[in-house]
Amino acid sequence: MQRVDEFILQDVGGEAILVPIGQKVVDLNGLIALNATGLFLWEQLAQPREVGELADLLCGEFEVEPAVARNDVLAFTQRLREIGAVIE
Amino acid sequence: MSPEPGAYRGVLDRLARAAQAKGQPYNGTIELTARCNLACRMCYVRLPANDAAARAAELSAAQWLEVVAQAQAGGMVFLLITGGEPLLRPDFFELWAPLTRRGLMLTLYTNATLVTESVAERLAAAPPSRIGVTLYGATAATYEAVTGQPDGLERCLAGIERLMRRGLPLVVRSTLSTYNVDELEAMRAIAADFGVPFQSSWYLTGRADRQPSEAAACRLSDSCGLDLEAEDRERRGLPAAEGRRTPPPANAEAFYCAAGQASFVLDPSGAMHVCLDLRQPGARPLEVGFEAAWAATRAFVAAHNELGAECAACDVRAWCGRCPASSMIETGTLTEPVPALCELAKLRAARETAGV
Amino acid sequence: MSDVAMDIADLCFNLSGLPSLAQVGLAERIGTFVRAQAPPDNAIQVRWRQVAAVPAPTGRLAFDPGQIWRMFGAPDGWEAEIRYSEAEPRALMRIDDDWTTVEMLEVLDERASSLLGIGAGELLLRGALTRRGGLVLHSSGLDDHGRGVVFVGHSGAGKSTQLEIWQGESGVIAMNDDRVALRRWEAGWRCYGTPWGGTSDIACNHAAPLSVLVVLEQAPENEIAPLTPAVAAPLLLARSFVPYWDGTLVREMTAQLQRLVYEVPIYRLRCRAERAVIDLVRSVLR
Q1: A17 with B8: Cβ contact below 8 A
Q2: B2 Cβ partners below 8 Å, 6+ apart?
Q3: Does A14 contact B at CB distance below 8 Å?
Q4: What pLDDT does B245 receive?
């Protein structure tokens, strides 16, 4: 999967947020606040990634068990799918 | 009086605090024009729709886009476009459409009376995060009494309907006065029928340019206003005694909101001010650069961030909404107490300490 | 009625149209800055005129700092409207783009003291000096055996206190306790006393080569530490008087401030109000 162009990463006081543009504005009706892992995964999704690949990258960046990383990635990418922020 | 669900509101509050801690101008307001097609008695800003001098002083769409680009580079993420009535600008969409592509959390305030099918269509093609429509009454007679516009309500409701049909995210807002307070429930019902959130505010201030205003004459009585505040808190599931500012001001800082510390306002001529009610210091991003204009605005707040002696010594300060902007409008100074607000604070404090 | 020339920070202002310095309450404030010789050709011409009412500015508002003056744009320069607590404006200064010719229209109050002695004069110096690459800092300054020391800080940071501690020390000349002007010459930076003093109202016509800038912070211990240019620049900017009405001037001034932080040693002084700070500061004086 890969992220779509209709979400713009912004910084408010050091907090990363995703702001939708175009029709995504109406679909989402709000913004997405990213935590550190969310921001890391969003950046990785600039190019096509598989879940396993993202989990490996997450383990390389943060001190986290592989199983936990995989769960985190699944939960995060599921949320991104729901709001149409990634395409397969 | 927030329409957002608690969790989202919490995120917004957190962002505001984070931005303020860093002095990031994350929240901008552009007052596109002070002109309006309505003539509300209590308005703090309105000029006639055909005011040629006011029109001549307004920045062009291209100039605004330049200012916005600079502002975004300087840290702006949230942007409110307001007026006057922004849709009075014939070049509105020259500005609007590019704005919606910039990744801003964009809000538009309008009275919706100028929302034709084609305007609604163009807004749907470039939707904002939120459109706030102001409703001045639930009957044509009341709407006219407030705004001077005989077919105003009809046009406003038609505008809302057109926006709703295109699924645009609306909030209905109302400014309450002696003219329309009896229709509060009916206005709430209109919003509910459309299935959109409803917000209201009641404390009317004078004009920001300090010209004569009918605000005080049509302001609700203190007790009526406080009843509304209590009712609003109840509706939102908040404890009755939360009329105090949160957190209660422990220090002697005069500016207690984000104005001039994380938010700013640009007037129709492109001058930057602390907020819509406080038209200072007025540095112009197009001339001195956004960064310098923001520095000037922050410096203004920092230089005037001390309470006057009377307010500093006041024991109902925690219940008082006075700020340098309200003092400026009513007294022409940044520090003098505003007698009407003193009375209101005393009453609010007395009610809440007695009531709990 | 004759012209009076005064030198402030190596800038000459030629005042014409004034009855006399004493008659408009200026003798004490700027008397020691009066120039003995004839003014040079490049003197800034200030034409003063008493009026019954101040005319309204013609241009649009460019900057309103919230007290004393408001700056308006004009076709070939600026108009500064000046008022204190009065409801009505007390003076209007029409200033050309280069800050070389100024027309000042003033309503004299019952004490007949001109605003040139306070806000109007200070604004004039700040504008003219900034236009010529100088700066005025919210600061106090002294000359310690020919070495200029400037203490920078907001109100209450201890600028006047520093001068009180140093005063009386042999070889020390207190220049000003609230407004010090800086200028950059080929030979280096110089600091200048101005006519406008602070709580102790020390306002001496004296200048010295600038040796060190000291950012003041009140603290329970005594400590002096160097500041890097990156840290010092925003601190100094916040204690400068930035001409926010004029984009060109803002850019010139910030560029000059950048040079300052790279060319002059800057320290942060945390101190109690006691004599020991003299040795502490002298330890970093070149």
Answers
A1: no
A2: B9, B199, B236
A3: yes
A4: 60
Decide: C167 and C174 in contact? Cβ < 8 Å: yes
Residue with the two structure tokens 């050709």: C41
- The pLDDT of residue B2 is 34
**Residue A14, phi-psi category: left (phi > 0), alpha (psi -120 to 50), beta (remainder):** left
pLDDT tens digits, one per residue of B207-225: 988 888 899 999 999 999 9
Task: Give domain A2-83's CATH number out of 1.10.10.1150, 3.40.630.30, 3.30.710.10, 3.30.750.24.
Answer: 1.10.10.1150
CB distance from B268 to chain C under 8 Å?
Answer: no
Residue of A nearest to B24 (CA): A13
Residues of A in contact with B100 (CB under 8 A): 21-22, 25
Do the chains contact at B281 and C238, CB–CB below 8 Å?
A: no
At A13-55, the pLDDT tens digits run 999 999 999 888 888 888 999 999 999 999 999 999 999 999 9
* Mean pLDDT computed over every residue of chain B: 91
Tell me whether residues B15 and A26 touch, CB distance under 8 A. no
Please name which of B317, B310, B308, B326 lies closest in space to residue B349, comparing C-alpha atoms: B317
Higher pLDDT, B356 or C270: C270
DSSP letters of B222-247?
HHHHHHHHHHHHHHTT--TT--S-SS
Q: Pick from B177, B184, B173: which is nearest to B216 by CA?
A: B177
Say whether pLDDT at B3 is over 70.
no
Determine contact: A47 vs chain B, CB below 8 A: no
Instruction: Mutate one of C138, C240, C250, C253 to test the B interface: name it (highest B CB count within 10 A).
Output: C250
**Taking the model in full, what pTM does it have?**
0.87
Query: Best mutation site among C58, C64, C241 for testing chain B: the one with the most B CBs within 10 Å?
Result: C64
Cβ contact C63–B303 (<8 Å):
no
Question: Which of B17, B26, B106, B108 to mutate: most A Cβ within 10 Å?
Answer: B26
Report chain A residues whose CB lies below 8 A from the CB of B129. Answer: 20, 25, 29-31
User: What are the pLDDT digits (tens) for B261-306?
Assistant: 999 999 999 999 999 999 999 999 999 999 999 999 999 998 899 8
Structural domains in chain C?
Answer: 2-131 (no CATH), 135-282 (3.90.228.20)
Chains A and C are touching, with contact defined as 3 or more CB–CB pairs separated by less than 8 Å: no
**pLDDT at residue B247 above 50?**
no
The answer to whether B255 and B324 have CB atoms below 8 angstroms apart is yes
**Binning pLDDT at 50, 70 and 90, where does residue B356 land?**
very low
As for the ipTM of the complex, it is: 0.88
Dump pLDDT digits (tens) for B115-142: 999 999 999 999 999 999 999 999 999 9
Give the residue among B32, B125, B36, B18 at the shortest CA–CA distance from B75: B18
The sheet with strand C77-82 has its strands ordered as: C4-8, C11-16, C44-50, C101-106, C91-96, C77-82, C69-74, C61-63
Q: Which of C172, C183, C129, C146 is nearest to C12 (CA)?
A: C129
pLDDT of the residue at C106: 96
Cβ–Cβ under 8 Å, residues C67 and C39: no
CA distance C29 to C22: 10
Query: So where are chain A's domains?
Result: 2-83
Shortest CA gap A16–chain B (Å)? 9
